[in-house]
Amino acid sequence: MDLFLWVKSLHVISIIAWMAGMLYLPRLFVYHANTEIGSEQSETFKVMERRLLKAIMNPSMIASWVFGLWAAYELSAWQDGWFHAKLTLVLIMSGVHGYLSRCVKTFAADKNTRSARFYRIMNEVPTVLMIGVVILVIVKPF
Description:
Layout: H1 3-32, H2 40-75, H3 81-108, H4 116-122, H5 125-139
């Protein structure tokens, strides 16, 4: 069997898992921001957020990078303009991931100062980035 097809499949699977977490975690923050500090509900959100980050998002982000760079190597995509644009958006997505990781720590320490509205807006950032990445990979406009 063609190894590249396995690499590409694993890349897509890891992206799906990463994006699921990137879309769900800010939604948890929306609800968590409206809970009372120390409440049972707040403590439950802390567990959910930590587990989502550590068990799904972090491993899938790492796998997305590993299989994505491997696929880029196999495709010799390094000189293509669309790939540079995609790589830029994925770097930004990784930065958003880092920011969300910090938010998990902030909520865990009961130090969140952001509103539910802020997290509703943050919930859209990964979506916009994902749309850009998909268009660049499928359409390859340059």
